[in-house]
């Protein structure tokens, strides 16, 4: 999130450029596909109410640490709780 203050706009623009470059790379596309597959699996299992459910799919063991998209590794969490895990 951008910081409040006179530099917040510049910080946001810098972050936006970084984010877009990261997400448009081949590795970023592969990660996005994996995240989308996990969300679809949770919707089909009835754990999420659909595309517009505000909760996020959390991987109990992160994909970057060898976790997968098995249902035993997925859970629905609020955005706040999911982001708090990494603080």
Hey, roughly how much beta strand do the residues contain? 5-15%
Strand order of the largest sheet: 1-2
The total strand number stands at: 2
- Unreliable residue stretches: none
Number of helices: 3
Q: What does the main sheet amount to? A: 2 strands, antiparallel
Could you report the average pLDDT, rounded to the nearest whole number? 86
**Shape label:** globular
Outline the fold blueprint:
Layout (H helix, E strand, L loop, with lengths): L7 H17 L1 H19 L11 E4 L14 E4 L1 H6 L3
Antiparallel strand pairs: 1-2
List keywords for this structure.
87 residues; mainly alpha
Write up this protein:
This protein has 87 residues and is mostly helical. The protein has one domain (8-84). Helix content is 48%, strand content 9%. It has 3 helices and 2 strands, in the order H-H-E-E-H. A two-stranded antiparallel sheet has the order 1-2. It starts with 7 loop residues before the first helix and ends with a helix.
